[in-house]
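Researcher: Quick one. two chains, 380 residues in total.
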Amino acid sequence: MWKVLSSKYLLKDRWIAVRSEACVDEKARLVEPYYTFEYPDFVHVLAITPDDQVVLVRQYRHGLGQDILELPGGMQDPEDRTPLAAGLRELEEETGYVSSRSEVIGSYSVDPAKFRNRLHLVLAREAASTGRVRQDPTESIDVVLMPIGDLVQRIRSGQFPNAAHAGLVFCGLLHLARTDPRLARLAGLC
Amino acid sequence: MWKVLSSKYLLKDRWIAVRSEACVDEKARLVEPYYTFEYPDFVHVLAITPDDQVVLVRQYRHGLGQDILELPGGMQDPEDRTPLAAGLRELEEETGYVSSRSEVIGSYSVDPAKFRNRLHLVLAREAASTGRVRQDPTESIDVVLMPIGDLVQRIRSGQFPNAAHAGLVFCGLLHLARTDPRLARLAGLC
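Model:
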């Protein structure tokens, strides 16, 4: 555990917060500056329909400069009482899907060196479409339903570039396969 | 694809570069400001010994504020001619392990919305220790050897919090299981 000697924001607005700190590490060495990013927690959803399809979103991501497939989700808003509530809200807004059987199955980090927030994974089973999406005015998101085996094949072949989301799919499948070995076979894991 | 109207650095030093842009999206809407992070490419290594153990590192990560297990790796330096060279250099420096059978098996992103760089995965088979680590003076890294099944069990139970690295382990295992079904069983995937 590092000791923090001083801490200040270099940037802080509605969209970003970058903190610069002077720290002392385990071996009494000064680490300065050390930069971290503050965000609300992220929540993403592995939503699976009764016929074993995953609900995905395709949208342009400006960091990478490409349209890519990802899990639905976003940031936990102040109005969201829990990560589960945030995930289900984002799922319904972005895709029009709801779930009657959902739970948070893990909390991770996108990048533990730089990000101070958490990335929660909601597993949403028995996902069903309401037929209504309510995307933010700034969003342009296509909804893509994909058989779980096809998603794993995409991850294997490099056509699902978000490594953190690939990790969430892995965690979700490991969780599901414990009680449903059929899913491990469907996913092509064996 | 967004059109970039203007672009400037809000922060730029040896450790960080934050760019602020004004963009026009697919529907001709102004997106301003949009922030992205520039880094050299990241390279991480799934190194496996002949007895099916994974070479991991444990270190304090200040974003999360915890000691955690991760894959060895780091940034591609200007002297590294390829992502593969960068990954093998980081593997040897951090852990003392070398590999006689290594390849880049995929290129991903930690967070495609925010990060402009790539995250490459090196698969390093037949990993063997030279007995010499050459960690940076600023690093305090413990080397941990772990049977592949134990690593997957940790990912399943939430004890491997780096979601992007969990994704890389997933990609590596899917790649390996294609030619070595024994590994899928060892990993507990089925």
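The first helix of chain B runs from residue 83 to 95.
Researcher: Thanks, that's what I needed.
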